[in-house]
Amino acid sequence: MDIASLGAGLANQQNNAALAGAAKTAEVAIPRSQATDQIVKVPPVEKKDATRTSEDRRFGAVMDAAKQIANSFAVSDTKFTIFKDGSGQYITRFTSLRDGSVRYFPEPDIIRFTESKAAQREAFYEASA
Known about the structure:
With 129 residues, the chain is of the alpha+beta class. It has a domain at 54-128: Double Stranded RNA Binding Domain. The protein has helices at 3-26, 54-70, 107-128; strands spanning 78-84, 90-96, 102-106. A three-stranded antiparallel β-sheet has the order 1-2-3. Helix 2 crosses helix 3. The chain is elongated.
């Protein structure tokens, strides 16, 4: 008898046995008391991006601050652009849509401005309560 054919026959028998066993365990009956006909909505999972750098967080903070300033009124008449200067600092340029005037805010100033406005709002709410 050939050793190669003997080994192939043995491997074939093991695969068939494994597949037959898997088919038997895959069939699971769920009792009717546990089954539901309603669709269950699962809230989306928010994945935290491990690759998000401190640079992205800085840019996000500047973007949020610029949006707060630009949208301080119901009808906004300003647009803003964020760019990075040679030293690596974010600069926000606000342009008035009425007269075309331009204002520049460096990153520390715009963050400090929005933090002070948030503190003023909190003090106002505490005083009015």
